[in-house]
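Support reply, case 0932

Customer input (verbatim):
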Amino acid sequence: MPRDPLFPILLADNLPALKEGLEGGAYSVNDRTSSGATLLHRAAVLGAVRIVRHLVDLDVAVDTRDKNGASALQHAAGEGRLAIVKILVRAGANPSLQDRFGDTAIHRAILGKHRQARKVVAFLVEHGANLDLPNEHGTTDRDWMTWKSKYTDLLDSPSTKLPPYARAGTQTAAIAGRPEEPGGAKTTDGPALLEHPNGDHESAVDAMSDGITRLRKHPRRADWISIEAQGQGSRPDSIRCTAIRLRENQLDLRPHSVDMVAALKRARLGSVKVLKVDGGFVSFTACTPRQVARLLDAIFRGQLGVRPHDGEDDYAVGMEW
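Our regenerated output:
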């Protein structure tokens, strides 16, 4: 069987090399292997996140099937590629699509037994996957999740297992308090200025910088808005949520105990003289959006205990009224 010439590029997630080859005509996004796998299929299998995001930006058909009737989403789920699953679903991939054997992305994720399998299943459940489609043996995803004890709780209340950014069609965010403490939900009344991770930003800092840039141009920029951060709690199966209020040029840190000297040092902003602290309010009139984002990141990570979930590169952030 001939070796896929794109294998080293996809394995390394070498987007510049891919772009060069596509632009030079060496290969096409529509090329297929003997198994019917498209470029998107192969990138999904190998975990090439940047390349998958680029292909989605090129509007490739995300539900194209290979010769076994499987989509890129199904392959990504089977390999436990959580970041790619998120990108594909948010680009419109069908979480309920069945291959020629009747198996779905959830079925493949459970059988794949990869480290991220549970998070993949939880994400697909939350995004409307139909759990009652039988495969060729008459087995549904609900059956599989019932038999596998690590998935049964997702059948009862999946929304409590996922962060706000992962909820389909969300226009509001929930701040549930620490997982160890009771806390009521807080909803907001306007469209989000940012949601991350959603495939649009490389990091939480990039996302917050973009959100603050847009906030400064927004008609409601003088109104207080909440920027929420969510990551892993004190245990791998827990969630840590917290929020800071801000407006165009000011943070409200009053609900939190923040060591600003430590935060500024962590954010590499010790030499910035334009920050003013007064009774829990921090003014940053002359700071760039990225400087403010770095300060927020330093506070969330270093002061408020927000960190990425095991196996993920970053924590989630959202900003909305």
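We compared this against your earlier run and they match. Two observations from our side: Residues 7-161 form a domain with the Serine Threonine Protein Phosphatase 5, Tetratricopeptide repeat fold (CATH 1.25.40.20). The first strand starts at residue 194 and ends at 196. Please reopen the case if you see a mismatch on your end.
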